[in-house]
Amino acid sequence: xxxxxxxxxxxxxxxxxxxxxxxxxxxxxxxxxxxxxxxxxxxxxxxxxxxxxxxxxxxxxxxxxxxxxxxxxxxxxxxxxxxxxxxxxxxxxxxxxxxxxxxxxxxxxxxxxxxxxxxxxxxxxxxxxxxxxxxxxxxxxxxxxxxxxxxxxxxxxxxxxxxxxxxxxxxxxxxxxxxxxxxxxxxxxxxxxxxxxxxxxxxxxxxxxxxxxxxxxxxxxxxxxxxxxxxxxxxxxxxxxxxxxxxxxxxxxxxxxxxxxxxxxxxxxxxxxxx
Length: 275
Known about the structure:
Elements: E1 23-24, H1 27-35, E2 40-44, E3 53-62, E4 76-82, H2 86-93, E5 105-119, E6 127-141, H3 145-159, H4 173-178, E7 179-194, H5 202-205, H6 208-213, E8 217-220, H7 241-263
Antiparallel strand pairs: 1-7, 2-3, 2-5, 3-4, 4-7, 5-6, 5-8, 6-7
């Protein structure tokens, strides 16, 4: 863990403007949100298309050069994809050296968690407790075999802790050929976090009849993993201990985060209504 809390530089395209009191540029906060999000959404522009493309993908923050690096350290984002997918092909051919631009395909990555439903006195003051992060960077294809294997293990263990070594590894030649990994060099990033109870206008909170009629508060919301179900050719009598422990830890931690978000004091907001 770095002795100084590192932050991404504030850029015009990454700066949080609305409710900037909820913003964070800390690497640890942003990387933590990304690494605990089961799906990230990746957007990029496609030539001859009037719209940007958005893909749901699986990814993890990590460092091949420093595998033990903490989430508060400088990391890169690894994304898993099929060898002939459009984003892989565009990243393979993207090279900005001749044009003076940074090498790689420019992409944006979004990750978000909803921790609770915030129910207020009026519709305009309803909200979510949430954690969201956005990253901006350039994606290039990983060609080094050792780095590719590192990324595949990183991403697999990001889905289920310690899963990679409990499977048939390393991947065979056909799997290595059909699977590609992108390394995203991050240029900037930001997070936005909302926690706490409802925040209604003073006039509404002084309306006795309204207070007597409308329930206000937070309904905590979080992912829950169920009981593992065996596959059709599974021969093990029960799910291994590492899977059960991962599920139990995940469920406990998710519930704790949602409950803490509801009871944590909310930062002051400049705008009139909450969102």
